[in-house]
Design brief:
Largest sheet: 5 strands, parallel
Number of helices: 7
Family: Belongs to the universal stress protein A family.
Structural class: alpha/beta
Number of domains: 1
Protein name: Universal stress protein
Strand order of the largest sheet: 3-2-1-4-5
Pfam families: Usp (PF00582)
Order of helices and strands: EHEHHEHEHHEH
Radius of gyration: 15 Å
CATH superfamily: HUPs
Domain UspA: 4-144
Strand content: 15-25%
CATH topology: Rossmann fold
Distance between the termini: 48 Å
InterPro entries: Rossmann-like_a/b/a_fold (IPR014729), Universal_stress_UspA (IPR006015), UspA (IPR006016)
Length: 167
């Protein structure tokens, strides 16, 4: 039987990404794998960068991405994962995740949600998950958002994070 050793999960703060994150934690736990949780801010996309710009410059309280990753790391560790790493980087998620980050961490599985926060860009130029599947050097798993149960509740940490940054 094949076991994964290095799992990469891409998150952006969306409900779909959180659903995929929960599945990634489960898969990492079953495989005793290292889990790398990544948030890649696409500074080339104005709508994405505009939302993050002020948050990246305010280091007194951290940034949305840092807080998001810290919350997910704590959840993964509380679920019993011992080897959890986070990565916050700037670049195009479509190329950075499969072509740079996956190779840097020697990922043997990349997990992502089927859609994320930027629906307009997805309609115009294609989704991040599509690019990951196309260019990844390893197995990929795209979690379909249609599988999210109606009673799915985001974690308390994620709710607090959205409340903090969406005032």
């Amino acid at each position: 039987m094949h076991y994964y050793k290095n799992i990469l999960i891409a998150v952006d703060g969306s409900q779909e990404a959180e659903w995929a994150f929960n599945k990634a934690v489960d898969i990492a736990h079953r495989n005793s794998a290292k889990l790398t949780i990544a948030n890649i801010v696409d500074s080339r996309t104005f709508s994405s960068y505009e939302g993050y710009a002020a948050k990246f410059t305010d280091k007194t309280e951290g940034s949305f991405g840092e807080d998001l990753l810290d919350g997910y790391k704590k959840i993964a560790q509380d679920a019993g994962l011992n080897d959890v790493e986070t990565r916050l980087d700037n670049g195009s998620p479509k190329t950075y995740i499969p072509k740079v980050l996956a190779k840097e961490i020697n990922a043997d599985l990349i997990i992502s949600g089927s859609s994320g926060l930027n629906a307009v860009e997805r309609m115009i130029v294609g989704s991040v998950s599509e690019a990951i599947v196309r260019y990844a050097p390893c197995d990929t798993l795209v979690i379909r958002s249609e599988q999210i149960p109606e009673d799915f509740e985001p974690t308390v940490a994620t709710k607090e994070l959205h409340d903090k940054y969406n005032k």
